[in-house]
Amino acid sequence: MNIEKDLQVFCYQFMEKMGWKPFPVNRVKVSKMARYKGLCITEDCESVYIILSEITNDSNKDFFATLIHELIHAHLLINKKVFQHHKHGKRFKQEAKKVQKKTKGFYTIKEIV
Ligand SMILES: [Zn+2]
User: Fold this and answer.
1) Which of 13, 54, 95, 113 has minimal CB crowding within 10 Å?
2) Domain for residue 7, yes or no?
3) Domain range for residue 101?
4) Measured in angstroms, how far is the CA atom of residue 38 from the centroid of ligand 1?
5) What separation in Å is there between the alpha carbon of 56 and the centre of ligand 1?
6) 32-55 pLDDT tens trace
């Protein structure tokens, strides 16, 4: 079983569910980083590379919520061209609320980097 591949597949299913224009998810990497729960890297602003921490995400739910959180960042950057100084500003909260509704409360906004 390849968890990283499954998480990547989840990303595309999630984008479809949300009705977002799909963007390439180059990789979802599970790492031992301890500082962040998740990171979203969009070097070319067209595709994303997501890193999730196996240390700070301590439940399955946590894991998927963090992945969704990072996908919101990527969606704002890639599809909406929103570049914010405060990463969890007004536009982020707007998108997060839509996701919360669509996922029936599975995802709730959390201050994750
Ligand atoms: Zn964040």
Assistant:
1) 13
2) yes
3) 3-106
4) 8
5) 14
6) 999 999 999 998 899 999 999 999
